């Protein structure tokens, strides 16, 4: 009943969707739009490997430690992006080193994740600055992208994209058929370590925008959707990048007017794309 | 039946006094084995006798405990392009983003750095390799939607899409029906007739390849025996290897081994994969 009255109350919709003064608001989030677009593309790109290597749970684990790193940085007053990257990389390296087999890996992630989240909560409770900063790390924020922040983000995304381009073929081979790849001389373990570092960097960047809790919506869902409609190794990453881009830009453009955080918009668009692809993909599986 | 033998070129594969073990346990020791161009060697033995491990040493993935190993006259090393490998059957995930043609393509350039430029892929050759195993019509089907037998044929095409001096096969007929077994053995035999590819074929069932086999390596209980089919698959020889009574019967043109223990005698249970 209260939900119904709440939904009928125009004030609620106004907080979610509000397009008055839209033009001037857009100028304010100019940096965020660039950041979101680049992140959507790089997140979409790396998510096809996340799916192939069965790593969605690892992404979630890494993002919690990235959150802890960012919270620690906030507390001691150093660059939050650096803190987030450090947390991310520690998690990525530990997860990569502890578990070669999916089962070992999942248990080590299950152990790491609450620890990371707990640390993050501790640091945030000790922090006495603006509370919007705290909440933003968990559920995302768009107004916080200033020029130096944007430079960090673009630089890191460029490193990830270049790294993936260099290891693309052997990483695809090792991700789909590790035994045959090892036999062909692909350095399977070294590639796995390099990939975890690139993944850690991407997760750290995503935490800045969509927040630690919802990173999977741009580093898993886009490729999961694309893989439902095609098996072409070229079209999957291409579609995945488009899906990531649409979710991020669409999310930011819708979030600008309202007063709720960006993440519900991004996750909803991302989820809608996945559902549509799943429905389309049913026909494909039946055709064979 | 015998392969093309050229006197002055080095053997394709050469084990000298080779020993492989893990910790305190020895899989096989003092193995001397030379495989020449075009030769078909079948590797038989109980589970855990070190058949797969033998292939792993040739691939450079598993170092010998003692002795030496040469491929094409050079010390063994990882990623030798002269070697093709058909791994033991493992199903692909249904959502694997590869079509049959992409799987075969990995056999040509999957190990190279960077991304392939779209115009540079030799699709004609790739689809031809699929045609050779009666799978040309599957080129555009996602590997995750192929049956186990179809996946296996695509793996054979991947291993043979580039010309190889040595082909290592680990139970390649396992999930195939009779027609599929015939297609795959015929394809492998063609590689050795046309390109002189030597074949090392790990199997627990010799009958499907009986017509092609030049020699047999039989591993059991930490020991081995090498020779022609009739020299090795013999009641007295196998009984001695296993240390238990084993009977080898010839029924029409099939060979039946009766009483061989499923697991090797002096070794532990399963095949070891470190």
How is the secondary structure organized here?
The complex is a heterodimer of chains A (288) and B (274).
Chain A: H1 2-8, H2 10-16, H3 22-28, H4 30-52, H5 56-76, H6 80-98, H7 102-126, H8 131-139, H9 147-176, H10 178-183, H11 188-210, H12 221-229, H13 235-255, H14 263-287
Chain B: E1 13-22, E2 25-35, E3 40-45, H1 51-58, E4 66-71, E5 74-75, E6 83-86, H2 100-109, H3 123-131, H4 148-160, E7 166-170, H5 178-195, E8 198-202, E9 215-220, E10 223-227, H6 229-232, H7 235-242, E11 247-251, E12 254-258
Parallel strand pairs in B: 3-8, 3-9, 6-7, 7-8
Antiparallel strand pairs in B: 1-2, 1-4, 4-5, 9-10, 11-12
Characterize the structure shown.
The complex is a heterodimer of chains A (288) and B (274). Chain A has 288 residues and is an all-alpha fold. Chain A has a single domain, classed as ABC transporter involved in vitamin B12 uptake, BtuC (Orthogonal Bundle). Helix content of chain A is 81%, strand content 0%. Chain A contains 14 helices and no strands. Chain A has helices at residues 2-8, 10-16, 22-28, 30-52, 56-76, 80-98, 102-126, 131-139, 147-176, 178-183, 188-210, 221-229, 235-255, 263-287. In chain A, helix 4 (30-52) packs across helix 12 and helix 4 (30-52) runs antiparallel to helix 13 (235-255). The longest helix of chain A has 30 residues, at 147-176. The N and C termini of chain A lie far apart (48 Å). The model of chain A has no long low-confidence stretch (mean pLDDT 89). Chain B has a six-stranded mixed sheet with strand order 6-7-8-3-9-10, with helices on both faces. Chain B is α/β, with parallel strands linked by helices and 274 residues long. Chain B starts with 12 loop residues before the first strand and ends in a 16-residue tail after the last strand. Chain B has a domain at 13-82 and 164-258: Rossmann fold, CATH 3.40.50. In chain B, a hairpin with a 2-residue loop joins strand 9 (215-220) and strand 10 (223-227). Chain B has seven helices and twelve strands. Residues 265-274 of chain B have low confidence and may be disordered. The radius of gyration of chain B is 19 Å and the shape is globular.
């Amino acid at each position: 009943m209260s939900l119904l009255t709440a939904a009928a109350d125009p004030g609620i919709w106004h907080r979610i969707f509000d397009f008055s003064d839209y033009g001037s608001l857009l100028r304010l989030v100019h940096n965020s739009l660039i950041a979101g677009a680049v992140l959507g593309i790089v997140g979409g790109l790396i998510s096809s490997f996340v799916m192939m290597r069965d790593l969605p749970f690892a992404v979630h684990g890494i993002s919690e430690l990235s959150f802890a790193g960012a919270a620690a940085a906030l507390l001691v007053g150093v660059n939050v992006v650096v803190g987030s990257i450090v947390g991310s990389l520690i998690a990525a390296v530990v997860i990569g080193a502890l578990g070669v087999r999916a089962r070992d890996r999942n248990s080590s992630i299950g152990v790491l994740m609450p620890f990371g989240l707990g640390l993050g909560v501790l640091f945030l409770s000790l922090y006495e600055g603006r509370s919007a900063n705290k909440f933003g790390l968990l559920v995302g924020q768009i107004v916080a992208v200033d020029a130096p922040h944007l430079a960090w983000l673009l630089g890191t995304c460029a490193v990830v994209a270049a790294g993936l381009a260099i290891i693309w073929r052997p990483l695809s081979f090792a991700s789909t058929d590790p035994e045959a790849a090892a036999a062909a001389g692909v350095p399977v373990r070294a590639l796995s370590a390099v990939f975890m570092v690139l993944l850690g960097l991407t997760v750290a960047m995503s935490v800045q925008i969509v927040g630690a809790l919802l990173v999977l919506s741009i580093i898993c869902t886009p490729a999961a959707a694309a893989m439902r409609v095609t098996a072409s190794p070229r079209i999957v990453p291409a579609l995945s990048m488009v899906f990531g881009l649409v979710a991020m830009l669409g999310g930011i453009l819708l979030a600008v007017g309202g007063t709720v955080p960006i993440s519900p918009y991004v996750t909803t668009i991302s989820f809608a794309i996945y559902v549509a692809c799943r429905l389309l993909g049913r026909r494909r599986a039946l055709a064979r | 039946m015998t392969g093309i033998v050229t006197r002055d070129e080095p053997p394709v594969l050469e084990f000298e006094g080779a020993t492989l073990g893990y910790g305190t346990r020895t899989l096989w020791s003092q193995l001397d084995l030379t495989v020449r161009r075009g030769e078909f060697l079948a590797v038989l033995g109980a589970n855990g006798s070190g058949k797969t491990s033998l292939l792993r040493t040739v691939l450079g993935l598993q170092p010998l405990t003692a002795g030496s190993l040469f491929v094409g006259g050079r010390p063994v090393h990882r990623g030798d392009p002269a070697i093709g490998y058909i791994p033991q059957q493992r199903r692909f995930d249904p959502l694997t983003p590869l079509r049959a043609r992409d799987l075969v393509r990995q056999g040509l350039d999957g190990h190279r750095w960077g991304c392939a430029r779209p115009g540079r892929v030799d699709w004609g050759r790739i689809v031809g390799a699929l045609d050779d195993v009666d799978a040309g019509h599957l080129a555009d089907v996602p590997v995750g939607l192929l049956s186990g037998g179809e996946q296996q044929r695509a793996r054979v095409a991947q291993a043979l899409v580039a010309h190889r001096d040595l082909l290592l096969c680990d139970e390649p007929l396992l999930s195939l029906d009779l027609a599929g077994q015939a297609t795959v053995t015929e394809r492998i035999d063609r590689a050795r007739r046309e390109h002189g590819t030597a074949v090392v074929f790990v199997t627990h069932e010799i009958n499907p390849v009986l017509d092609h086999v030049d020699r047999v390596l039989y591993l059991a209980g930490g020991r081995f025996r090498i020779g022609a089919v009739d020299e090795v698959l013999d009641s007295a020889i196998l009984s001695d290897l296993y240390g238990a009574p084993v009977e080898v019967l010839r029924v029409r043109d099939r060979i039946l081994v009766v009483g061989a223990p499923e697991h090797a005698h002096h070794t532990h249970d399963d095949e070891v994969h470190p």
